[in-house]
Amino acid sequence: MKKINLILSVLLIALSFGFTSCNGDDDDKDPITETNLDSGLFVLCEGNWNMNNAALSFYTTSKSKVTLDLFSDVNGQGLGDTGNDMISFGDNLYIAVKESASVVVVNRKTGKMVKRIPITNAQGVNRMPSRLCASSSMIYLSTFDGNLIEINPITNSVGRVASVGRNPEGVAFVNNKIYVANSGGMDFPNYDNSISIVDASTMSETQKLVVGLNPGVVKKLDDNTVGVYVKGNYGDVPSKFVTINANTDAIDKNIEISMMNFDVFGDKILYSNYLYSSGRTVLYKLDYKNNDTFGTMFFADGQPSASIVYPYGINVDYANNEVFITDAKDFAIRGEVFVYDLGGNLKYSFQANNIPSVVIPRR
Question: Are strands 215-222 and 204-210 parallel, antiparallel or unpaired?
Fold first, then answer.
């Protein structure tokens, strides 16, 4: 019995040291309630597939404190299984939770859940919600069963559904059209190669544009241009960055380049890559408009980063002149968020839950 008590005591002491943030401060032991949510950063943590451990972490900037699972603390329930994407619209966050067949609506001011919107077909089968984007009045969701779904943010209900391609991922709203990346990712090695272009007025596909094998990330670059990260087959077909003229819906630029993710960086893009030869992470600013073929280093010291183990997400916040890089580490332990200024200088970092992917400020 004494031996059992000793083991339990050691475990309790170990656990007390396990929940520390990367800047050396302890996590906020007091659960955040709906009345005291301060300015800070929401971090969607994808969690591990089939582990039901997706989370919404929150970093309170004034206190340098991390709440590893704000959603659970405030709502008394978990976010769900595999948090795929998150966007901000009005007073709410919209979170696509893939394996839990739902889009979870969260109040930005309080962290309180507004609604859990079921994303199922007529037979009640999970459509597998994937990625989100929005117009000025509507939210759009790609689902892995081959559809694009309209969500009304006033009623928080599902509206019209458009059939697109196989296993759609990234989506972007430009010129009253939604551009949907048909990855075919669940049909390895027979990936899809197209972008579905959907008319937002009729919610019907008007064109499939071939862009290359396994398109993934899609973002609005400006009012007339869409950017696409085409992943290739991770073997003999390399990845590339493609731009689409949103007026003509024709391919404009086709740049073969190794990348893992990107975000808009003024009139350029900021993209990440992992150097397997050295085990380091690089971020480059790519001037795609002027046929740049590689880009210039983002980090202020001009060197690859040894601190970022696996760059998973990139979010550029021009309103506050910051860049957020999420680090998934080995995908089995808690991740980390690195915050840089626009000049590539590291400001601070903090711990988040498993597989952090999207960062949205609350100011």
Answer: unpaired
Beta bridge partners of 231: none
Q: Identify which of 68, 141, 60 has the alpha carbon closest to the alpha carbon of residue 104.
A: 141
Between CA 26 and CA 33, with CA 31 as vertex, the angle to 5 degrees is: 140
Retrieve residue 230's tokens: 């085409």
Any alpha helices (H) in the chain, and if so which ranges?
A: 2-18, 70-75
**Count of beta carbons in the 10 Å neighbourhood of residue 8:** 10
Sheet with 250-256, side-by-side order of all strands: 215-222, 225-230, 240-245, 250-256
Q: Which of 291, 293, 288, 286 is nearest to 314 (CA)?
A: 286
Instruction: Write the CB contacts of 109 (distance below 8 Å, at least 6 apart in sequence).
Output: 37, 91, 362
The strand pair at 83-89 and 92-97 is best described as antiparallel
Tokens of 168: 């759609």
Q: What is the pLDDT of residues 146-158, one digit of tens each?
A: 999 999 999 999 9
Q: What's the predicted TM-score (pTM) here?
A: 0.90
Stretch (H or E) spanning 88: strand 83-89
User: What's the pLDDT tens digit per position in 297-321?
Assistant: 999 999 999 999 999 999 999 999 9
Q: For residue range 49-105, what is the model confidence (pLDDT) as tens digits?
A: 999 999 999 999 999 999 999 999 999 999 999 999 999 999 999 999 999 999 999
Peptide bond into 215 cis (omega under 30): no
Give 344's pLDDT tier (boundaries 50, 70, 90): very high
